[in-house]
Amino acid sequence: MRTDTTFAVIFYLRRKNSNPEDAYIFARITVNLKRAEISIKRSIKVKDWDSFRCRPKPLNQNLKLLNSYLDEVYGQILDAHKQLVQELKYITAQAIKARYLGEDGQHKTLRQLIEYHNKNMKSVLSPGTMKNYYTTEKYLVSFTQEVLNTNDIHLKQLDYRFILDFEYYVRNYQPRTKRKTCSNNGTMKHMARLCKMVHLAVKMEWLERDPFQRYKLRIEKTERSFPNQREMDLIEDTTFRRIGYERVKDVFLFACYTGLSYGDILTLTHKHLVRGIDGNTWIYTTRAKTRESIKIPLLPKANEILNKYLDAFWPGKVDHLLPVYTNQKTNTYLKEIARACGIHKKVTFHVARHTFATTVTLSNGVPIETVSKLLGHTKLSTTQIYARVLQKKVGEDMGHLISLYREKQRFKENQRSDDFIYGH
């Protein structure tokens, strides 16, 4: 590529403060009168430096070796300039310096990519989502250390084999604490997060090609279990002596009747309660996960639970509407509550959102578009996951369609009968 930029490289000395007779050697890159300086990490006696040639005087073997080393550095800087020209990059002194030092996009490492992504996404993604990215980061760090025997790798080393080996590592990872290994879908979520970061590297031109191009995420569709109306009634009608269980039960039921997640309920305050256009109480809030604003009219059962705790006191209440325990403690209590009620399904706090989407709304004829708005989903396809599991609703809709066709058939038969009588 032809260029009209001026380019020069010279070596010069910078005297040491501790001893003016000695000096450090620097390389100065100049492009269009703009400079960038590089420390060569070598020193020399000032008297042994040829100011005219900008090179050491070849007085002895050591100085001759130093001259050879400077020639190598000079050649590498020229190569860095040549690479940038061939890649049609904008040529600056700083760009040449960065390429020589391996600090530009061509030499970015996996850890630098992760650090850049997490730093920039911290203000965009919710704390819960960022927590998942930090977990994926831990897997990547331990994979590079245990399998690749290194602390970091260059992005250029990311290839299809790296992806397959990392997937195998996550699937079979044995943690120090006793817990299950990652399920297929759990593994795929880690792969999806790595894929997103790699795509960012491609967009930033830190990677020339996408190693995920031939890789396919294999998400297994699972049936989501959720309490039906009978089981919800069982939970509502059961009273617990321990106040902690009673509070967790109420907060769980409140989530079932509003569709709010744990994080959303945790931050609920009086300012989120608004009198709606229908004269009833509504919740106006923003989903922590998607930043979507949601407006939810409170059902009578949810209103009852809210009123129960309006004047109640609990540690750390401040302005919060409900006594919410930690997520871990809440799920532990819910497990005991389900057992006490004779419910054999796995009940966690997040199940409440499924219950709202299915048992409370879709099963009772609420349009899926409305449910999607209430849940704060950004895409309708996310809400359709819940619609797929409602066999009862499918049966009712098909039953309505069958009735419609039967009605049409009867109408046709009556019309034929009338025509026959008229013909006679």
Q: Overview of this structure, please?
A:
The protein is elongated, with a radius of gyration of 34 Å. It folds into three domains: 7-106, no CATH class; 108-203; 229-389, Intergrase catalytic core (hpI Integrase, Chain A), CATH 1.10.443. The protein is mostly helical and 424 residues long. The strands form three sheets. Strands 1-2-3 form a three-stranded antiparallel β-sheet. α1 (61-86) crosses α2 (93-101). It has helices spanning 61-86, 93-101, 110-121, 127-146, 160-171, 184-203, 229-237, 243-258, 262-266, 300-310, 327-340, 351-361, 368-375, 380-388, 391-423; strands spanning 7-15, 22-31, 34-45, 49-50, 55-56, 273-275, 281-286, 293-297. The longest helix is centred in the last third of the chain and has 33 residues, at 391-423. The model has no long low-confidence stretch (mean pLDDT 86).
Here the CATH topology of the largest domain equals: hpI Integrase, Chain A
Class by helix and strand content?
A: mainly alpha
Distance between the termini: 95 Å
Largest sheet: 3 strands, antiparallel
User: What is the tally of beta strands?
Assistant: 8
Distinct helical segment count: 15
The 3D shape can be described as: elongated
